[in-house]
Design goal:
3_dmu_93_MTrfase, Signal recognition particle alu RNA binding heterodimer, srp9/1, 8 strands, 2 helices, Glyas_Bleomycin-R_OHBP_Dase, 2 domains, alpha/beta, VOC family protein, about 120 residues
Length: about 120
């Protein structure tokens, strides 16, 4: 096996999602980004977030499915302020699957789905 990578397939919102994620996560790095010819649709992008490689694209084929909450990106926050800020930002247009709270396994934990349908589990201990 050469590698294993998280892959997020959007349907026309990849560029907008990348821009939004750059605002939420200041250390998100865009390694590469190419667009489909004569379009703002992302042919392929490679992102890096705290050691996690994420590939992103817009599907050229329309599908009857999108993201499922059971697959999520797990983020360990460095402070109570950071988790609170991220949860608030992601909830703008998104939804809380598990609101920010103490669930026993984490002093502060939230499972939120952003407006693009991508799920994020955020924790702070």
């Amino acid at each position: 096996m050469k590698s294993a990578t998280t892959f997020l397939m959007f349907q026309g919102q990849a560029d907008e999602a990348i821009q939004q994620y750059q605002q939420w996560f200041f250390d998100l790095q865009v390694e590469s980004l190419t667009y489909m010819e004569n379009s703002q649709q992302v042919a392929m992008a490679v992102l890096h977030l705290k050691g996690l490689k994420i590939m992103v694209n817009d599907s050229a084929i329309k599908h009857n499915f999108t993201f499922t909450p059971s697959t999520s990106i797990y983020v360990e926050c460095e402070s109570a302020e950071e988790i609170g800020s991220l949860v608030a930002q992601i909830l703008e247009g998104g939804q809380a699957l598990m609101p920010l709270d103490n669930y026993g396994f984490s002093k502060q934990f939230a499972w939120v789905q952003d407006r693009f349908g991508v799920s994020w589990q955020l924790t702070y201990n």
